[in-house]
Design a protein that fits this description.
Largest sheet: 7 strands, antiparallel
Structural class: alpha+beta
Strand content: 35-45%
Shape: globular
Oligomer: single chain
Distance between the termini: 28 Å
Number of strands: 9
CATH class of the largest domain: Mainly Beta
Radius of gyration: 19 Å
Number of domains: 2
Order of helices and strands: EEHHHEEHEEHEEHEH
Length: 242
C-alpha cells in the first residue's frame, strides 16, 4: 500500500522528454501554469476563459488525487511511435516496509507477487540496479472497460494494459529509518509499443539515485534521456538489466 505521508528522501532519475510531469498537489497557480505550458501560450490566448478555467480545474483535481494517493511524481506520455499514437503513465510512490536488509525486503515482494490471482500472467524477477536490489513485476491484464454505449457496440470492450512495477528499497544513507521502499509504476494501453518503451524504462531504472541530506520528497528529473523510437535494439527488459 502506498503511503500518503511524504518521505524525507530525494530521488534523481533520467526520463525521456516524451513524458510530461503532472505535479501532485498543485496549487491553483501551479495548475494554471501547467495547463498553459501543455497547450502553449498561443493556443491559450484563443480559448474562452470558461474553457481555460475548466481545464485548470480538472488538472487541479487530478493533481490532488495523486497527492492523496501518496504519489510524489507523476508524468504522462501522449505522443507517437512512428505513425501511431501512444499513451502511457508513470508514477513514483513510497511504501512503508522493513528495509533493514534490502535483499530480504525484495525477496518478500517477489514471494507476495509470485502467488495469488493473476500470478501466472506476471514476469517477476530481482534485478541489481546501481542504487541497489529491486523487485520488478511485469504483467498484462484488462485494466479498462470501454463502455458499449460510447462505442456503439453490444458489449463493453475490454482494454488490456501492460504494467511494470519496480519495488526499490531506499538505501540507508538516504533513509536512516530503513522503512522506505519506492514503488515505480509504468502503465500503457499501447501494448503494441512495449518494445519502444523498454529501453526508456531500462534507462530510468538504471539512472535512479537517492541523494542524501534531502528534506521532504523531491523528484529530480533529467529529460535528456533518449526519446521513444519505433525500433529498439534493447527491447527486452530482462536482457538489458541482466
Amino acid at each position: 500500500m502506498i503511503d500518503s505521508a511524504a518521505p524525507d528522501i530525494a530521488i534523481e532519475f533520467q526520463l525521456s522528454s516524451d513524458f510530461k510531469e503532472i505535479l501532485p498537489g498543485a496549487s491553483p497557480s501551479e495548475a494554471r501554469a501547467a495547463v498553459v505550458d501543455r497547450y502553449g501560450p498561443e493556443v491559450v490566448a484563443t480559448l474562452p476563459p470558461a474553457l481555460l478555467d475548466e481545464a485548470v480545474s480538472q488538472f487541479e483535481a487530478i493533481s490532488e488525487l495523486l497527492r492523496q494517493a501518496g504519489i510524489f511524481h507523476a508524468s504522462v506520455c501522449l505522443g507517437r511511435v512512428g505513425e501511431r499514437v501512444t499513451l502511457s503513465s508513470l508514477t513514483f510512490g513510497r511504501m512503508e516496509a522493513d528495509c533493514t536488509d534490502p535483499a530480504v525486503a525484495v525477496a518478500g515482494i517477489l514471494r507476495i507477487k509470485g502467488r495469488g490471482q493473476g500470478s501466472d500472467r506476471r514476469d517477476i524477477k530481482r534485478f541489481d540496479l546501481p542504487c541497489g536490489p529491486a523487485a520488478v513485476v511485469i504483467e498484462t491484464a484488462v485494466g479498462l472497460l470501454l463502455p458499449a454505449g460510447e462505442l456503439g457496440t453490444a458489449k463493453d470492450l475490454p482494454l488490456p494494459v501492460a504494467t511494470l512495477q519496480a519495488y526499490i528499497p531506499v538505501p540507508k544513507e538516504a533513509d536512516r529509518s530503513r522503512r522506505s521502499m519506492v514503488v515505480v509504476t509504468f502503465s500503457t494501453p499501447s501494448i503494441q509499443h512495449w518494445e519502444a518503451y523498454c529501453p526508456v524504462l531500462v534507462d530510468l531504472l538504471r539512472s535512479l539515485r537517492f541523494p542524501t541530506g534531502a528534506q521532504g520528497a523531491i523528484a529530480s528529473v533529467d529529460t535528456k534521456a533518449e526519446p521513444l523510437v519505433a525500433v529498439s535494439t534493447r527491447s527486452r527488459i530482462s536482457d538489458a538489466l541482466g
